[in-house]
Each structure stands twice: as C-alpha cells, then as structure tokens.
Amino acid sequence: MNNKKTQIAIISIFLAFTVGLFSLFVILPKAEYSSSEKRYLAKAPEFTLENFFEGKLTNSLEGGENGGYIPDHFPFRTFFVGVNSYWNLLTGTTASNGYYYGDDGYIITKPAEPLRAEKNLELINKFSASYDEVGLMVVPSAGYMLDSKLPRAHADYPDEQVYAYISENKEANIRFYDLCEDFGDHVVSDEQIYYKTDHHWTSLGAYTAYGRYCEDNVLEYTGMDDFEVSTYENFYGTTYSSSGYFLRSPDTLEVWKNKDFADSIRVTITEGSTTETFESMYFEKHLSEDDMYPVFLDGNHAMVTIENTKAKSDDTLLLIKDSFAHCAAPFFAENYAKVIMIDLRYYKMPVSEIVKTEGVDDILFLYGMNNFCTDTNLAYLG
User: Fold this and answer.
1) What is the mean pLDDT of residues 335-348?
2) Angle at which helices 159-169 and 117-128 pack, to 10 degrees?
3) For residue range 238-259, what is the model confidence (pLDDT) as tens digits?
4) Whose CB has fewer CB within 10 Å in the chain, the N or C terminal residue?
C-alpha cells in the first residue's frame, strides 16, 4: 500500500513539475536576446500547412542548426544549461558544448577538423597569382599553445598539421607568418596571449603578431611603451557564454591606444550602401554591454577602413580577415596610412576590385586557426 502511495506521489510531483514548466513557458515573456550566450534567440515560427507537412515547423520549434523556439525560451534555460555543463564535468566528460574546462580559469574551444584548410589555401593560392606578394597569417589555436591548461583527456589540435601543409603547398609569392615561436615565448613567461573566457587573442597576442609582421617585412614598429593601456574588468566572452561554465571568474580586457593618434584617425564602416564615419578605432560604448570585444572597431562589418594621417608610411594594406583582426588592425594602422578590412562572411563583391580601385600596396589574410579550417567564404574572393 505504501509503495502505491509513493508511486502516486512521484507521478503527481512529476506531472505538477511538467505542467508548471509548460505554464511558465506559455505565460512568461519571451526575450529577444540572451545576454549570457551573447546571441539572439529564435522567434516564434509561423504556422502554415506547408511548414507543418514539410517538417519545417517541427524543426523551428525543437531546434535545428541555428537553435529552436522551445529550447531557446525554456524556463530557467540558463540555469539548466549550466547544471548540465557541470554535471558533465563531474561525471568525467572533459568538454561541454564544444569547450574544455581548463586550468587557471581558461575555457578553451575544442579543435576543429581541418575540413576546409586545403581548399582555403588553394583559393588563396589562386587569388595570389595576380600579385607580387600576398601575406598569410593563421593564428595558432589557444588549445594548441596552451596544452598544459587542458584536461588530460582532450582531442588533438591540427595546428602543426595545417602549418606544415601551408608551408609545403603555398605558392612562392605567399609569405607565411609563423607565430608559434613568438607565442611560445609568452606562454613560457606565463603572459596571457589568449582570453580565458573568449576565443580571441588578447591585445598582447595581437601586438606580438604585429611585431612578427613588421620584423619579417623589415618595417619599423611601435614599441610597447608607446601605448597607453587601459584595463577593463568583468569581461565574459564567447567561450564563457557558449560553454555553460557560468561559475568561472570574469576576464579582463585591455585596450592599447597610441596617444599620438588622438586627432589623426578616421574609421569608415560600410554595410551595403550605408556608410558611417568615426574618429576613433575604439567604440567604448561596448565596454558597458554584455559583449565587450566589439570595442575594437565595433565588431563584425562587411568593410571597415582605417585612415591614419600620422602613419609611418603612405601605403595601403588590404586585410582579408575574421574577427581576430579587430584588435590587431589598430596596430597595423601604425604603419599604414590606410587599412581596409574585408570580412568575406558579409562582403560578397570581388575583392580584386578593391585592390584596383584603392591602390592597395600590401595584402594580408589574417584568420584564426578554427576559421581557417572551417570557413567556406573564401570562395567569394573573386
């Protein structure tokens, strides 16, 4: 008899819990944006007979590649995501949602399969055939450089394999910038070249890459002491937001400014037919927002041009890039009167036309390792 009462009690609690969650799902307001995950949430799908019979309605509700309406708006979703991540950690799963729980506060992205590395080098080789020299800089992945911070059981990073392939198969007129030795020196000195809660490199990492670029091209580069460094606390980046490891401590973000450029900078942001002009490379409004990294050049845009009347030369650099370039471009503006950044995720016109119309002197591809291994947008080089 007692067993029957116990079973009824358990079933009643389960039903009450389920009905309660469903009721909350129905009545609670639906947010448009998740500040913890730094992304827009799925909108309610439109019900049509076509969507229903083709399975599109189910996909939109339950979740496809870009998320679904029900999981995105499930009550207390952030709490449950965090609980799941830490439960996985406690039960021996070393990675959650594609991220490793590393030592010293690091949340490190799992390695990407180098599915597009060969094809992307082929596209860059083809593009470079029209020019005397083209530069290629692929930023080592944090997991490759910070192996000691990773859990013992982790997948192998493809960096060494990809670098070897580039060195052996790039065209002779492509200058490849190998950052591993320079970054390794910082790792040995325990200097932070990657953010702990974000997948990007720090300003120190970007400055190190700028120094390697200048040394390899015999260019004078600005010393570290010539920058004014401002530090901002409570930086929670992309790896924090996506991993569910919400008990990790916040990071700090540094902005390095050359005080001599206070009145010499003009930044033009182009999206389609819309153009806006600004007098700084740093968009400090983002420092009070959930995502602070767009302080560098306002984040992702199709085309961004930096003009510096006090640069060390009158040359123009074309920077074909992903978001790793955002905190590096201000350093390149030290040496180039004009830096044109093109993001092929959003810019779909032939890049060769920019080279002609803008009188480009130097060209540099700058990508993080994961994007170089997976990005499909280099097909738009033209």
Assistant:
1) 95
2) 30
3) 999 888 888 889 999 999 999 9
4) N
